[in-house]
Input
Amino acid sequence: MATDHPFGGQRLLPAVRHPKELERLLERKDAAWLVLLGGRLGRLQPMVKLAADHGKRVLLHADLIDGLKNDEYAAEFLCQQIRPAGLISTRVAVIRKAKQNGVLAIQRLFLIDSGAIDTSVELAKQAHPDLIEVLPGLLPQWIGEIRGRAGVPVIAGGLIRTREEVIAALEAGASAVTTSRPELWGET
Output
């Protein structure tokens, strides 16, 4: 990555699902990066292009796209045709394909139990993602541990509802926090 911080210092990444939510972010100067939480395949390219036309960089959650199988061929299509700045996925094949296509590769890891965490960290070591997104992000004690074990920066996401939870995740070592709560988008 070009800078010490993966998102040029942006610490809060707004996450949107619908075009109207995206439109609310287009004029915000504090949101150069945003997360698009899937959507219909036919609507993705216009949404990513609209964001790019407004100077926004989109991280696209590949696992949540309606109408597209979540595999390396879908990832290649997304990278070459939709052209997001990055892909988020739980799947190693998608992460590898994103890296091959020169987009930011973010592996999503669910903190379910210690066995799942161990397995996910090992998969991340194999896939070599640029970042890991841990969910739920309101478990700050795990953020530093995951970052240390995987050796890559961590994003915290999922179930974060308050400014205090955002701050706790950042203080625990998260490079950024994703949230779909508009009331938190201007917090950091």
Observations:
- The first strand starts at residue 12 and ends at 16.
- Residues 142 and 172 are 8 Å apart (CA to CA).
- The beta strands are 12-16, 33-36, 39-40, 57-61, 65-66, 86-89, 104-110, 131-135, 154-156, 176-179.
